[in-house]
Amino acid sequence: MPIADTARLSIRRITLDDAAFLLKMLNEPSWIANIGDRGVRTLADAERYIEARILHSYRTAGFGMYLLATKSQGQAIGVCGFFKREALPDVDIGFALLPEFWSQGYALEAAAAVMAYGKQALAFARVLGITTPGNQRSGQLLEKLGFRYERLVQMPPDNETLKLYACTP
Hints:
Blueprint: E1 2-5, E2 9-13, H1 19-26, H2 29-34, H3 43-61, E3 65-70, E4 76-83, E5 92-97, H4 106-120, E6 127-131, H5 136-144, E7 148-155, E8 160-167
Parallel strand pairs: 5-6
Antiparallel strand pairs: 1-2, 2-3, 3-4, 4-5, 6-8, 7-8
Helix pairs in contact: 1-3
């Protein structure tokens, strides 16, 4: 069941049936460089990741990462969703697409729909976004969504320096 639909995308909760796609997504060089290596190398690893991180978040927080699929072919192209990290005072939004779907407006389309869902269905008063300092494309997308850069933050566990953006949807 979709949490949102856009002109070109269906956005829904991830299930264990999405393990093959998540395996591919989590091992994209752009994911590893900008988000981090999650150590997911096999289909079984992907299933464990979905259970421990994504389904757990749905159960405990009521939200999480969602799958983006094209309406035209039902093809999974990326993920977008909300996270609640202990090191941040509010939820943050995250997004990633397979490289072949970059620069086509999908990330903005998906993130805008997920933000609307966060405001309407989840009643978020404030949403954060974090990016690596060199990830200008994600920073620009956050700004298009109405986020404003606030400051640099140190994120555990390795005290990585990230740029913090905030938005009141």
